[in-house]
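Human: We require from you a standard protein entry with sequence in single-letter code and fold as tokens, and nothing else.

Assistant:
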Amino acid sequence: MDLIPRPQVRATLHDRARLLPFLVALTGYAIAGITVPLLLLFSGDRLLPKTVDDGPHLSPWVAVPIDLALIALFGLQHSGMARPSFKAWLTRRVPEALERTVYIVMVSAVVWVLVLAWQPIPYRIWSIDGVAGRVLDSAFWVGVLLVYAATLLLDHFHLLGLRQAYREYVIRIPDATADRLQVHGPYRLVRHPLMTGLLLTFWAASEMTAGHLLWAVGLTGYILLGTALEERDLLARFGSSYRAYAARVPAFFPSPRQALRRMPRPVESEQSDADTRRDTESDSTPWSSTTPQ
């Protein structure tokens, strides 16, 4: 983010109408900073006292409907708040610069409910040892890195709502973050690398329990539905430019030929992408979707 000149720092600190909204956005950013790794580590059965596989649980007959209800709650809240109609409704009630912060805080709250109320179902589906098991466990960490790489390419601070509040309340400059088609880095290989990273964290497990399988299937279904809704919005907003991008780049996983080839793109295609604006992956994830606003 832009550096803050000293006079603006003093002005912000002495003006509650500017300081308090920025502190709200900063708090939302901090909450997301805790919630994102919580979700990933919970999903991968790593480092936490309670995970998707381990922890106190009820009988499967009770656990399954509870877990399904939690997944439904997550999907409905996340996708519902990501829709343009809801954003328009929300910005009539909160400052536009804090709309993203409200979304992030609400998504984070639902993630915490999901994690704390989740009922493990510890019946083993598969257990893979040796090289194959190590490959699966390594793929989980690849997914984690891909999630963070995708957010950085999309403008990490904008994605989590901090940049909007910073520009509105601290430096008093309208948010000028470009809403352009992102085609660099992993976006050359897949349209939704953030979703690819999440899918890897859900499925890449050397040990899979029934509860983990329910988690993976449920959240994969949400990702597929949320991405379909988002792509409908992107086509409506960007028309033929996004259609051309979607025709040449797969949604989640690249073909081996495409990954190895990485052929240079035509000049006219690059110009088209530079002129096209979009939020690629900001509202269809637990702390965003598939596009910042």
Q: What stands out?
A: The longest strand covers residues 124-127. Residues 210-238 form the longest helix (29 residues). Strands lie at 124-127, 207-209.
